[in-house]
Design a protein that fits this description.
The protein has about 325 residues and is an alpha+beta fold. About 40% of the residues lie in helices and about 10% in strands. The chain contains twelve helices and five strands. Strands 4-3-2-1-5 form a five-stranded antiparallel sheet. Helix 2 packs across helix 3, helix 5 packs across helix 6 and helix 9 crosses helix 10. The chain starts with 8 loop residues before the first helix and ends in a 5-residue tail after the last helix.
Length: about 325
């Protein structure tokens, strides 16, 4: 499927030297790039929201100034992983995970078809945005960041926020606010250069030591598996070696940080591939970018971990992994 760039021991040796130069380059570039993910951006990162819901999230994510499309997307992803049929143990239902009693008072007929269907994303997504904006109105006189206060009200109730004069000192609520604001950066289209990853060099160093290792579907590199990996098993292990825990599968790893443009890729970025370029949930392959248009990846059964070009018809986009971004991801989506 993909052309092999480096084959054989001598070529791999040259490749390792190439990678080491790139690792040094990560540190040099890091000193020259400033500005992180654009604060206040309401654009959505390419493909981060499934195409079926993009228009809804863009429209309703601008319902009031307390929210934006990236924030709304972060909430929906955190709640349901974009599954419109999911039911939680607390009987929260649908893509926005409304409890029926809350839906009864805050569900809206978003598509104007005459009913309010908790299972229909055309109603549930507008209702999630409307509920956020209602909460923002309840706490609008509370000091502090209005969006943080709104999220705290979503988690703990507006009365707790009003009494506390801001985000209350409840660890669950504080963690919820931090999680959604961090995930917001993963769903937002950056408006300026994305800060380099401090852990990129270590992740590359780990991956390049695995060059030549045979691929194994579901491989995590354990002794029982002969130290073999599949694509996302390799990227997970590479970042775990520098203290960052990623989800196991590629399409969830896409949400572990902001998304640099193709022209702004740096060594250590994760690069993703999909048969549906409008939907991150369809991602089926991931590698670690090393520069020069190439990545280290575990391609498929019968191949070995190697260098491959990233510029194929299925190139989807990239993620600059951050520790906070990885921690913010839900454990099940």
């Amino acid at each position: 499927m993909r052309k092999v760039w480096v084959v054989g021991g001598a070529a791999v040796g040259l490749g390792l030297s190439f990678v080491m130069l790139l690792i040094i380059g990560v540190y040099l570039v890091a000193g020259n790039i400033v500005n992180g993910v654009g604060a206040g951006s309401v654009g959505l990162a390419k493909g981060a929201v499934p195409s079926a819901y993009q228009a809804l999230v863009r429209k309703w994510g601008n319902l009031c100034t307390a929210i934006n499309p990236a924030l709304l997307a972060a909430q929906l992803y955190q709640e349901s992983g974009w599954d419109p049929d999911v039911v939680s143990s607390a009987d929260a239902r649908g893509i926005a995970q409304f409890i029926p009693s809350t839906w009864a008072t805050h569900g809206v007929d978003g598509d104007g078809d005459g009913d309010r269907d908790i299972w229909d994303p055309n109603d549930a997504i507008p209702s999630a945005a409307s509920y956020d904006c209602d909460l923002a109105k309840y706490v609008k006189t509370v000091p502090g960041d209005v969006t943080n206060n709104m999220l705290a009200a979503y988690n703990a109730g507006p009365d707790r926020v009003i009494r506390a004069g801001g985000v209350p000192a409840i660890s669950e609520t504080q963690n919820y606010v931090k999680t959604i604001r961090t995930l917001e950066k993963s769903f937002a289209a950056p408006v300026s250069r994305v800060d380099p990853s401090k852990q990129a060099a270590g992740a590359i160093y780990y991956a390049q030591k695995k060059l030549g290792t045979p691929y194994l579907w579901g491989g995590n590199g354990t002794a029982e598996q002969g130290g073999r990996f599949d694509c996302s098993g390799l990227t997970k292990a590479a970042y775990e070696s520098v203290g960052i825990t990623l989800p196991r599968v590629a399409n969830d790893q896409y949400n572990a940080g902001p998304h640099p443009a193709r022209s702004e890729l740096l060594p250590g970025d994760l690069v993703f591939f999909s048969t549906d370029l409008g939907n991150s949930r369809a991602i089926h392959h991931v590698g670690i970018y090393v520069g020069g248009g190439y990545m280290i990846d575990a391609p498929y059964t019968g191949a070995v971990i190697r260098f491959d070009p990233i510029d194929t018809a299925e190139y989807f986009g990239a993620t600059r992994v951050t520790e906070d971004g990885a921690k913010a991801l839900p454990t099940t989506v």
